[in-house]
């Protein structure tokens, strides 16, 4: 097979297929296209699997062809998979009916056959084919008379078949992998196994819990792959046994020749050392260490190659080979044929006649494994600095993993020096590989110095290697210069990140890639800012690298999101020339993208690139022009979400309506009672209408002040007018605005109902007065006050609920520091100056000093100092987190005990805290899906209610005039003295207004937003941030909640749960023990120590404890000290302290004063001395390791009790 042929397979998803006819049409049309080997379309899966020649077709051209047929096509994978071809040898009979050329053309007409080559004697045909489309039997049936060749043809060097010699056969292995929890696990396995020598490809699936590995069995075994996965902390088992190695005739012939000529060759090579020649190739297209290993492993498998050293940095390969067995051209083709077959190999002129290397330079690589050890290659030693080791377990873990790495001869890890000394074979591995392998285990590793050679080459070799250096050096320096000139920046939206570990994983892996200058990932914003060299890598490739790590990644087209925006108030401007002066100067400044200055408002709006310039630099430029700039102070409270004004407004509306509503309700109830009594009298005593009228008018409220105007109607009118004007004022304004914009909301409905009721009542009253009616008309003056009372009460309560959420937001915003201390550092981190600036003026890259007790103003990483940091308000983690150089810090968290210098990475709106505040703000305003539906519905609701109300009015008028008895039946207790027509119209109006009134206090547009506001507000007050209405609506479906932080379900601070004494109470009284322990821990700043001291003070009912001297802290172990002056404390509290919940068991070693008799450890007299003689107690508090170091053995039963507590998530301390 020719090395430049490249067959790929791609899966294309299809939309629009309906039947098998569509399937056949696509298969026939695409199958006829040039370069298509095979296409299989599935109607069920709605996809097509296409095998094609990448020289002639691309996924895009395939999609276009399918699209032209009327179907939608999308590629399932941006990286099509290569198809590995097979080779078969056919013996052509001498008496064949067809000539050899005819046989070639017959075979090449068939799909699946890639290439046919003939041997020099025309007796053998080498057929390269794709086994998934066609097999050997079918090929033999195509040409009658041909048979499988028993021996490979003689191949002359330099012919096209030579490249097959370099193709090492591959085996596919499927493994079941248990213990993976997230995409980080898959990337760990892929990263670790992919670096091993002999591994060609690996793909790990989290969903299927399996790993598919393509490897070369002559370099690595299946058992070794399984062992390496298990070493990474996962359980691996073979799903299918590795498929047996398929050896083609060429491979068999090669092995046969190697075996028969092996000993001869070895002797020949050993005797004729000067026959080995060294060649240097330039290789373009290598991206990572995987490419280097692929080339080294494949080319070193050739019998004629004695050694190969590939350099990724120099883009070169130095090969030591036997020119009698292989030519330079064949070596070049062999490298080009290495997967993924994209390497470009060239031979520089100056290396055409390189002097021969001596034996010491590159020892012979014997074809026999037995001879391999006899000639060890040059070994080198490297020292790697390792941060993050805490105990011997870490040391053993590193030594265990690195010692298994191919090429590592020996390793020694020192816990005290925090480094590892590794002896390795430079032909098989390199220091950078070893460093990244240690980093993959979770430690920070850096190379301390250049590798040191153990076995040095001769002077001649050194001279030779020196000769080869200058061209690559020149090219690398030239490349570095070019890179600084052309640094571009892109933003990638990253999904699937859950914690800081994900951020570190992406940053660490991408920094290793060629062409990436720097990367900064923001967890809350889900955004990565990457600075890269466009000549080496492009944004889509960067996104692909992130996707390979198991995260979702898309390149953000709108790169302006990363631009900084600055609002300034500029004092001292007098005319338009000042404005022009500022604008023109700023626009000339490097890094300023846009500038607009308004003379009327004295404001400047500036957009800048934070990578080049910062807000302080911009302010300085304006100052230098003679103006006084200052920052526009941003409102740091949540006042924009404050509802104080609305709360006041609706409270006033409710109170006004209530004051006038209560008398109206009283009058209405009185009239209802009187009317029912009249109705009873009329029914039982058969009173005439005249008697009824007389009795009705004799009632106090029915007394007529003027003809047609009763006391009742007059009072109702007086009480209704203020409510209508003042109580309903806000409703009228909102309704007017809605109608102005041609929309109808709830306010329109309320205003409509109250206005119609008031106007109708007022008109009917005027008519009665004009007619001088003897019987008073029925009015609806009671409707508006009562309606306004209930609606304004609802609105008031809604805004009170909304107001509570802004309190939670204000609390979040208050976490932010208002000022920052920026320091200037000289050489060796010497402090040169300090400056207090507004937090909004902090620029990326600034060095910020944070003192103990101070808040971190921005996100960043520690460059100097050690401290404990309380991040509970941000992360929910109760325990303070240790911070040391290299660790990241979050804005808003509190520095506890040590001073830190941090380098700012995220400032302003990009900080984690700002992103959280933004998230909560968006949640407040976001609409739940049900609320969106309700809003949509309410748009149609109001007009439909008005329509129903009008229909009701006319329906009852018609019914009344057709059949008055129906109205009489439902309109009970109406005044018999008025006419039937008036009764009908009154009843119709009453029914119509009732429809409007009932529809008014509609919960449709009120309930959901209130629920969302209250829900997110209560959540925020309790430290639970809800992303909006939709997640809240989905919450009722949650069955199981998994907590990843202890602080979310505990008190948030450590508390003593239980105390267990290892000595009898008569030997050591409880209160004495508590006094000693409390005093000892009173000097400790550790959270557990603080909890113990607090508990002891509470139990002893004392705020003061004894004296602690010689206090010593050993991080990760415990404390030791001397305790005195506890007798007075014990004398005051002589009663026994009750046994209570504590989680610490303290072993105390007593050291009496010299003048008193020495007592054995752990035994103290229960009796207090009659005189308060001060005793000195030597105290140790800590873990098992601390006790063992101090010669105190922990018994098995104590160890078991501690383990039981630890299993429950508690911390047991001795």
UniProtKB/TrEMBL annotation:
Broad class of where this protein is predominantly found: Golgi
Membrane protein topology class: Multi-pass membrane protein
Annotated HMA domain residues: 8-74, 171-237, 277-343, 380-446, 488-554, 564-630
Signal peptide: 1-22
Protein family according to the UniProt entry: Belongs to the cation transport ATPase (P-type) (TC 3.A.3) family. Type IB subfamily.
Annotated PROSITE patterns: ATPASE_E1_E2, HMA_1, HMA_2
Protein name in UniProt: HMA domain-containing protein
